[in-house]
Amino acid sequence: MSWADIYPWRSPEPDGPVIRQVYDQVRGAIHQGALKPGGRLPSSRDLATRLGVARASVVAAYDQLLAEGYAEGRHGSGTYVSADLSGVIDLAQAPAAPVAAAPDPPMTRALEAVMGLPPLSPHAQTFSNGRTLMDARAQDAWGKSTRRALRALSPVDFGYSDPAGDPRLRAAVADYLRAARGVVCEPGQVIITTGAQHAVDLAARLLLKPGDAVWLEDPGYAPTWHALEQAGARTVGVPVDRQGLVVSAGVAAAPEARAAFVTPSHQYPLGVALSMARRLELIAWAREAGAWIVEDDYASEFRYAGQPLASLQGLDGGERVIYVGTLNKALFPGLRLGYMVAPRALAEPLAAIRRMTDRQPPTPTQAIVLDFMESGQFAAHIRRRRLAYKAQRDALVAALDRRLGHMLEPDAPDQGMHLIAYLKDGRCDLEAEASAQALGVIARAISPLHHRAPAHPGLLLGFTGFPVAAMDPGVARLAAALGA
Ligand SMILES: Cc1ncc(COP(=O)(O)O)c(C=O)c1O
């Protein structure tokens, strides 16, 4: 089969020359690029049947196209659009009819910022953040889950389904979060999303009207700022210190804010955990102000030492907190599956908003993840990842101390997927980022992630995507870039 088999062929007009009309139609489709060089044309018998004309008319039209170089015949296998049309037509030529200029789409600061970002590469460049490693056991188990889950799909799985996700996966996620994160929830409160970013966007769409004030961590995760600005919210940066978000500063700046978007278990980018005192303060403010807290727990799986602080959602009892998590970090970013846990009153409206955007999560992917969880492979994978990522973090810190100890001061967190290496000599982190990039090392400057607070310049280095053996060579390149 080729695209020509589904091309919308029209029957010739009754009062015109049939051969000429067939010829014009095929030639026109080639000129428009609808039929590509090298593509097979329908057999003369098939095209004649579809057009309701005599086969001889199609043969005559094809002969003409063959003679002019539009088509070529391959002995015994039919007629093809010529593989090389360069001598016949210029496919790149501009369309003849002038096209009226379309009005520009309404631009916002956030849209301009995101459009200015470099393209996302599927290839992890040294120290790029948010990457994961699936070891051979995980890949093998994933393959088995895929085969089992796809074999077990039944006709209902090929149809539309609940925008909040497969009820069995929602129940499995609820079990997991109750056990691992102390989240207080039942399956009906879980909404399966395509990831943490999707959940943030859904929460913004539901909770915020244009002009509503919203607290964000400063410094903070740029994509969350972008999503909220695009939603028309008035973003209020709240400073972060060694205990995490300075709640009193948020109260002083915008007590009436409608929501606070925070990363309490591993503040992005600084890596600090929100202290218990600040957690209680934040929840107390939200209760009093009637505000929502969106808890982005994007890297909660990767805790390397000490007791994890239970989720804000659990502490609050699920009244004011919308909990957000992702499987794109626990497994791999290309998966595009995550979840949010909403207070009961918000679960149904969130599912309705989701239905208006991308309708529902994909059934086959949900089935695969469910199998991976139910077979115990998810828990086993997380346990192995914790050990591996801890070793990677330690190897990175050791290499930084050895090669760049005089220039950088790494702040290795007990959780998460990256660390910050602070620049000791007050050197500009943007310049350091550019020099590193020139040698293929991604060391993101943290100063642009600050909005108002003065930045202590530093470089954000991801360690989860690179094996221990890659750390020293990567740091050697960074050292060369920094002129160490
Ligand atoms: C703080 C934070 N939130 C959310 C995300 C987005 O995760 P996802 O890929 O699930 O959309 C990331 C990814 O790096 C992140 O660092």
Which sheet architecture does the biggest sheet show? Answer: 8 strands, mixed
**Which structural class do you get from the secondary structure elements?**
alpha/beta
Using the coordinates shown, work out and report the CATH topology of the largest domain: Aspartate Aminotransferase, domain 2
Any idea what the CATH architecture of the largest domain is?
3-Layer(aba) Sandwich
> Helix count?
17
Strand order of the largest sheet: 3-10-9-8-7-4-5-6
By CATH reckoning, the class of the largest domain would read Alpha Beta
Domain count: 3
Helix proportion = 40-55%
Task: Calculate the terminal CA-CA distance, rounded to whole Å.
Answer: 60 Å
Strand content: 5-15%
Please report the total strand number as a whole number.
14
The name of the CATH superfamily of the largest domain reads Type I PLP-dependent aspartate aminotransferase-like (Major domain)
Query: Segments where pLDDT lies below 50 for 5+ residues?
Result: none
Radius of gyration: 29 Å
Shape summary:
elongated
The ligands found in this model are: pyridoxal-5'-phosphate
Average pLDDT rating? 94
